[in-house]
Amino acid sequence: MNELFPRTSLEQWRVLMAIVEYGGYAQAAEVLHRSQSSVSYAVARLQESLGVTLLEPEGRRMKLTAVGDALLRDARPLIDAALRLEGRARALDQGWEPEVTLAVDALFPTRLLLKTLSEFAGTCTQTRVQVHEVVMSGADEALYAGKVELAVVRRVPQGFIGDWLMDVELVAVAAPGHPLFQLERELSLSDLVMHNQVVLRDSGERHPRNDGWLGAERRWTFGNPQTMIEVVEAGLGFAWLPIDRAAEGLAKGRLVQLPLKCGQSRKGDLSLVYADPEHTGPAVKALANCLRSVVAAE
């Protein structure tokens, strides 16, 4: 006879997911604000109920077995759905969400983000904001994982619908003393690949992208946009930088646009994506409206 109720709970699967994501029982216990013994017990009961081994040690970390990996992939959508349901209940009960989460790609100008947050603070005085600063596919992963309710992305990920927000211009620049300027002529791709290209690392881990990389072996990669700019200003390479981030360096002579035959500037477009348009709370909608109004005022 079929069982009417499952023998495992979503909480047990959530504990398993935390162990995998954070590397062990102690780390998961800290993140979940639980004792290590309760974390161990939850996984032991889960394995006992299923009759399979889900975890095995790998050095100091715990990793999923092949069976555990397959089962956790199936469980993730259920956990995400439950978390969305709980979030929806809180929003309905309180009217305005106590917290909103936003992922912002590094292409989005910081000054516009600050204006947006300032405007939002005047509208939703009791709502906290968590901003996830991401690069490229990092926004996709934040949406897929249910970590954010709103995202400013370079590409609208599969399964989501987005609205165009703005275009961002990127310009090819280097420090004035860079060897490329010593050629004293228009530059081609063959000139560029002989020098270090400075690029920003994709913050996503599952399917990282290399947007903007020329394909040359001489590449320096950084995770922080400001560090990337300082490296270029120090004469250690060239880069395509968002005009907003390059503006101060260009104005003060620390950066100079490269005289390229073509491709001296590029356009990147940003879109605004709701994680769950049908169940979006008023605070998330207000934050999205602030983003649109600030961009429109430029």
TrEMBL record:
<dbReference type="InterPro" id="IPR000847">
    <property type="entry name" value="LysR_HTH_N"/>
</dbReference>
<feature type="domain" description="HTH lysR-type">
    <location>
        <begin position="8"/>
        <end position="65"/>
    </location>
</feature>
<comment type="similarity">
    <text>Belongs to the LysR transcriptional regulatory family.</text>
</comment>
<dbReference type="InterPro" id="IPR036388">
    <property type="entry name" value="WH-like_DNA-bd_sf"/>
</dbReference>
<protein>
    <submittedName>
        <fullName>LysR family transcriptional regulator</fullName>
    </submittedName>
</protein>
<dbReference type="Pfam" id="PF03466">
    <property type="entry name" value="LysR_substrate"/>
</dbReference>
<dbReference type="Pfam" id="PF00126">
    <property type="entry name" value="HTH_1"/>
</dbReference>
<keyword id="KW-0805">Transcription regulation</keyword>
<keyword id="KW-0804">Transcription</keyword>
<dbReference type="InterPro" id="IPR036390">
    <property type="entry name" value="WH_DNA-bd_sf"/>
</dbReference>
<keyword id="KW-0238">DNA-binding</keyword>
<dbReference type="InterPro" id="IPR005119">
    <property type="entry name" value="LysR_subst-bd"/>
</dbReference>
